[in-house]
TrEMBL record:
Gene3D superfamilies: 2.40.50.90. Residues 91-143 form the TNase-like domain. It comes from Desulfohalobium retbaense (strain ATCC 49708 / DSM 5692 / JCM 16813 / HR100). The lineage of its organism: Bacteria, Pseudomonadati, Thermodesulfobacteriota, Desulfovibrionia, Desulfovibrionales. It holds the Pfam family SNase. InterPro entries: SNase_OB-fold_sf, Staphylococal_nuclease_OB-fold. This is Nuclease (SNase domain protein). It comes from the Bacteria.
Length: 151
C-alpha cells in the first residue's frame, strides 16, 4: 500500500472508531495557544483543539518557542487543517495539502512525546516507536542534554 492510501485508511478508521463526533471538519489555524493546543476557525466558530495522544513542553517553558516554530513550519504556508474529533476537545489534526498528522510530525521531529496516560490505540504504539527513534537520534528537544528524558 502506498503511504497515501495508508493515511486515508487510517483517517477512515479514526472516523468510524471515534468516541466523539465522527465528522471531520476543515479549519484554519488562528493561533498556537500552547505546544499542543491550537485555536482553529471553522466556517461558523472558533474552537480550541488539543492534539490527541501527545504531550510537550508547558506554556512558559524555555523550549516552547522551538516547539511553536516547528508547528508553524509544519502548517506553512496555508495554516489549513482537517480536524477529526477523538474525545472531548482532543482531536487528530491533519495538515491540508500533504495529509500529515500534526501530532505524529511533532513526535517524529522530537518536539512532542506520546502521552502514555491517554494514548493507548494502535497509532500510539507506532508513535512510541517514532519517539524512541527521535530520542535515539537526538532530534528536537532530545538534542538538549538537560531535557528530562524520563518523560
Amino acid at each position: 500500500m502506498t503511504r497515501h492510501r495508508i493515511r486515508i485508511l487510517f483517517l477512515l478508521l479514526v472516523l468510524i472508531g471515534s468516541t466523539g463526533s465522527a465528522w471531520a471538519w476543515p479549519g484554519r489555524v488562528l493561533e498556537i495557544a500552547s505546544s499542543q493546543v491550537l485555536v482553529i476557525k471553522t466556517e461558523q466558530e472558533v474552537k480550541r483543539v488539543s492534539l490527541f495522544g501527545v504531550d510537550s513542553v508547558p506554556k512558559g517553558h524555555p523550549h516552547q518557542a522551538q516547539v511553536q516554530r516547528c508547528i508553524k513550519n509544519e502548517l506553512a504556508p496555508l495554516n489549513r487543517v482537517e480536524v477529526v474529533p477523538v474525545q472531548g476537545h482532543q482531536a487528530h489534526v491533519y495538515i491540508e495539502g500533504d495529509g500529515q498528522n500534526l501530532a505524529e510530525e511533532l513526535i517524529r521531529a522530537g518536539y512532542a512525546w506520546v502521552d502514555r496516560a491517554d494514548c493507548g490505540t494502535r497509532i500510539c504504539r507506532f508513535w512510541r516507536s517514532l519517539e524512541a527513534q527521535a530520542r535515539q537520534e537526538h532530534r528536537g528537544l532530545w538534542a538538549e542534554p538537560s531535557f528530562p528524558v524520563g518523560k
